[in-house]
Amino acid sequence: MKFHLQAPAANVIAALGGDWVRIGETEYRQNLIVTPDAVVTGWAPAGFGALAESDFGALLAFAPEIVLLGTGATQRFPHPRLLQALSRARVGVEAMDTRAACRTFNILIAEDRRAVAALVLE
């Protein structure tokens, strides 16, 4: 039997540290959005405490089925009014610490789900 190394068909979060995340071979050190086929840096640059409705509304451009909100080292919950645009569009939102969001993202994209990870790396 012969084995062949195959590159993943989607973005896979390969590793995570205190203030960085590696997607494929690239390391990121700022808050970002990860979809199966895109990585967008510069999301929520002021961190969790400064999240605004527009930060979450911008996620609709990726047509997600579910948004995984990685809130840093601990699980925190955004004010419900910040999630109104996603709620109106019937998009699910799960808030969890960033490590859990990364693991869950990898599982969901392996199942071909339209998941978007919005990660705070503070």
Structure in a nutshell:
With 122 residues, the chain is of the alpha/beta class. It has helices spanning 53-57, 84-88, 98-110, and strands at 13-16, 21-23, 26-28, 32-34, 39-41, 66-70, 92-96, 115-119. It is built from 3 helices and 8 strands.
How would you describe this protein?
This protein has three helices and eight strands. It is α/β, with parallel strands linked by helices. A five-stranded mixed β-sheet has the order 5-4-8-6-7, with helices on one face. It is globular and about 55 Å long. The model has no long low-confidence stretch (mean pLDDT 93).
Uncertain segments? none
- Cα distance, first to last residue? 45 Å
Number of helices: 3
Based on helices, strands and strand pairing, what is the structural class?
alpha/beta
The major β-sheet equals: 5 strands, mixed
- What is the oligomer described by this structure? single chain
Secondary-structure element string:
EEEEEHEHEHE
Radius of gyration of CA atoms, rounded to a whole number: 14 Å
Strands side by side in the biggest sheet: 5-4-8-6-7
C-alpha geometry: globular
Number of E strands: 8
Task: Summarize the amount of helix as a percent range.
Answer: 10-25%
- What's the mean pLDDT score? 93
Strand content: 25-35%
